[in-house]
Every structure is written in structure tokens, then in C-alpha cells.
Write a structure and sequence with these properties.
The complex is a heterodimer of chains A (92) and B (305). Chain A is an all-alpha fold and 92 residues long. In chain A, 80% of the residues lie in helices and 0% in strands. Chain A is built from three helices and no strands. Chain B is 75% helix and 0% strand. Chain B contains 15 helices and no strands. In chain B, helix 1 runs antiparallel to helix 2 and helix 13 packs across helix 15. In chain B, 28% of the residues are buried. Classes of the chains: A mainly alpha (92), B mainly alpha (305). The interface between A and B is large, with 52 and 60 residues.
């Protein structure tokens, strides 16, 4: 069973790599930001699996903080970086 | 340590180095910020793998959550004032780069010259843990054994706030009203954030967590409210706000002064009699413990005896 957990974490980490490609490629700012949000979700999943694999309950707290604070970056993006339509990030 | 774990750790380390390099070298500031947020996430995972969940919690709250939002706000402000969207390549200066390389080399040398098995204070902390009132050694050191040190950082925060208020001479930014979705999100999320902060503070007594992480989550709640355009009522921003920000450090100094005046020299000795009469000391979960400067004194005195 531990092997399954470790394989899962590795798989999820590889998913992060796929998200990285989107961060680098873009093309718009929203693509990059959404990829970062996907990172947060995947990191929560990795933490939950690690908590189960190692029996470390504290990791669930880390996952909780991740999940709660992912919204802060998203709101900052929507309120500060997105509204200007002529912003050059929006151009492909 | 099997092959899968080694693969995970190796990928994590490579990803961290790559992200750090890209975030620094990227000419587009926005992309750099997104890469920095991703770096914070992976860094928290790395701290988890290094079996330092306390640091992972702090990194999750500060590195991945708060700093990203603050950097985005700073970028928007930069765009508003000076249109410095992309850094020119020649922004790399040889002087700072040399300094950084030297500093990195010095740090590397310092790490290499560390004693392989440092004695540290772990044994002393473990021996006195029962008297600190908490079972998490990190919290015991930060809030009990070194309570003065940690709690006086409130004054540092106060100074930082004063500096921010002094420098921020701009008229307050006219915030677009938050839409219905954002408003509803905040109404749901802010209470949860406050609850999570209280939980982290409480959990710090016996598990990873504590005041720093709780404060960071609470700070994130404040940042979220500011981003959405929520402001204090005008009649609260003057004297009431100033009173509120000084009441913490002031209260702490008063309590510390009262204790120091009451027991000038024999802090460690008289603590024994006081402790038996103090209900907070019998109950490890008692909230008084978190801000009890008195419990820092016996711990320190005992350690130095």
C-alpha cells in the first residue's frame, strides 16, 4: 500500500510538471494564473496522500492552509492584474 | 526510501531549482510572480519531505499564499505609476551578482563547517517541556522559553506599520466595487480563515502550527478584505485604530514590567510557588499559556541554572 501512495505522489508531481508547461507557454495571464491555481490543488492532493502514507496528521493542516490561501492569490489576480483590457499580458 | 520516493524527491529538487532560476531570469514580471507562487508551493512540499511540517505550514501560508498576492498588488501599482513592464536584460549587474555568489559560497562553507552531530539545546528543551505547558517543542521554545524575544517582535511589527503609514502618502486607491461573486466568496471565506487561524494557534500547543502560521492566515484574511475593497468605517480609522494596534505590544510590556517589578531577582525560585496557584499552569490547553510571559521566566531560569 505505501508503494501505491508513493506512486500517486510521483504521478501528481508529474502533473505539476504539465502545469509548469502552461505557466511558461501562456499565452494569456489568465492561463498562467490558472496553472498556478492548479498547482495549489495538486499540492493539496499530494499533501493529503503524503499524510496518509506517512501517518502524519499535521500535513492535513498544511493542505488546509494551502486550500484556503489559494483564493487569496486568485482574488489578487482578478482585482489587480486582470481588469485592464489593454494590458499586454492579455495579448496572445 | 524506495525508488518511488527517490524519484519524487529528485523531481522536486530539480523543479525547485528550475523554478527559482526561471522566476529570477524571466523578463516578464507577471510570469515571474506566477513562477514564484509555484516555487512557494513546491518549497512547502520540500519542507514536508524534510519532515519539517512547522516550516511547511509557514511556507504554505506566507510563501505560497500571502507573498504572491502582495507581489501581484505591487505589480499593479508599478504598472499604474511607472510603466516598467519588462526588465531590460542589462539589469543584471556584475557587482550584486558577485556579492550574491560570494554570499552563496559563504553560506555553503558555513553549512559544510557545521558540526555533524551538534549537541544543540534539544535535550534541555525536552527536559523542560513539561514545565512549558505545551507539548510541541517548537511552540515551547518560541512562545514560552523565548517568550520575550518572540512577543517583543510585536514592536517590530508596530514599527513596520508606522513606516508603511508614513510612506503611503498616496490618496487611497479608488477600488472598483466588488461584484456579487467576490462579495459572496468573502462572506463565506473570511469567517473560515479566522476559524482556521484560531485552529492553528490552538493546534500549535501539541502539533505543528502556532502563532506565526495563525497570524499569516489572519493576515491573508485582511489582505483579501482589502483587495475586495472592504474598508474600515471612517469613524474607526482614527484614534480607535491606533489604540487597537498599540494595545497588544503595550499590554505585553505592562505585564512583563509588572512581573519584573514584582520578582526582581528570584524569578526562577518564586516561580515554583506561583505555578501551583496558577490554574493556567495545570491545564496545558489553557489559552493564557500562549501569552503568559511568566511561563517564559521559569523555563529560562531553569535552563541557565
Amino acid at each position: 500500500m505505501p508503494d501505491l501512495y508513493h506512486a500517486l505522489t510521483l504521478f501528481l508531481l508529474l502533473n505539476l510538471g504539465a502545469g509548469l508547461w502552461r505557466v511558461v507557454q501562456g499565452p494569456t495571464a489568465a492561463d498562467r494564473m490558472l496553472a498556478a491555481q492548479l498547482f495549489g490543488t495538486t499540492a493539496v492532493a499530494i499533501l493529503l496522500v503524503l499524510a496518509q502514507a506517512g501517518g502524519v496528521a499535521a500535513l492535513r493542516d498544511v493542505a488546509l492552509v494551502f486550500a484556503l490561501l489559494a483564493a487569496v492569490a486568485a482574488v489578487a489576480f482578478v482585482r489587480r492584474a486582470w481588469p485592464q483590457p489593454e494590458d499586454e499580458h492579455d495579448r496572445p | 526510501m524506495n525508488l518511488l520516493q527517490t524519484g519524487f524527491d529528485g523531481l522536486l529538487a530539480l523543479g525547485l531549482i528550475w523554478l527559482a532560476w526561471r522566476a529570477l531570469a524571466c523578463p516578464d514580471l507577471f510570469r515571474g510572480i506566477v513562477l514564484f507562487i509555484a516555487f512557494g508551493l513546491l518549497m512547502a512540499l520540500a519542507w514536508v519531505r524534510l519532515e519539517a511540517p512547522d516550516v511547511a505550514l509557514a511556507e504554505a501560508a506566507i510563501g505560497a499564499g500571502l507573498t504572491g498576492a502582495l507581489l501581484l498588488a505591487a505589480l499593479a501599482r508599478l504598472n499604474r505609476t511607472a510603466a516598467a513592464q519588462t526588465l531590460p536584460r542589462e539589469a543584471w549587474r556584475s557587482g550584486p551578482a558577485l556579492l550574491l555568489v560570494l554570499a552563496g559560497a559563504g553560506l555553503g562553507l558555513a553549512v559544510l563547517s557545521l558540526i555533524p552531530e551538534p549537541a544543540g539545546l534539544q535535550a534541555q528543551v525536552a527536559a523542560e517541556l513539561g514545565r512549558s505547558g505545551v507539548s510541541n517543542p517548537v511552540t515551547a521554545v518560541l512562545l514560552n522559553f523565548r517568550g520575550y524575544d518572540t512577543l517583543l517582535e510585536l514592536l517590530v511589527l508596530l514599527l513596520a506599520l508606522l513606516a508603511a503609514w508614513s510612506l503611503d502618502a498616496d490618496p487611497p486607491r479608488r477600488e472598483a466595487p466588488a461584484g456579487a461573486v467576490l462579495d459572496m466568496l468573502l462572506r463565506l471565506l473570511l469567517p473560515v480563515l479566522v476559524l482556521a487561524a484560531a485552529y492553528l494557534l490552538w493546534a500549535g500547543a501539541h502539533a505543528p502550527g502556532g502563532a506565526f502560521q495563525a497570524g499569516a492566515v489572519l493576515g491573508a484574511a485582511g489582505v483579501l478584505a482589502l483587495l475586495a475593497g472592504w474598508r474600515l468605517q471612517p469613524h474607526l480609522t482614527g484614534t480607535p485604530l491606533r489604540l487597537a494596534v498599540t494595545i497588544g505590544p503595550g499590554g505585553f510590556l505592562l505585564v512583563a514590567w509588572a512581573f519584573a517589578a514584582g520578582r526582581p531577582a528570584a524569578a526562577g525560585i518564586s516561580a515554583g510557588t506561583r505555578r501551583r496557584s496558577d490554574p493556567a499552569d495545570r491545564d496545558p490547553g489553557h489559552p493564557v499559556h500562549r501569552r503568559h510571559p511568566g511561563s517564559a521566566v521559569p523555563g529560562l531560569a531553569a535552563r541557565r541554572r
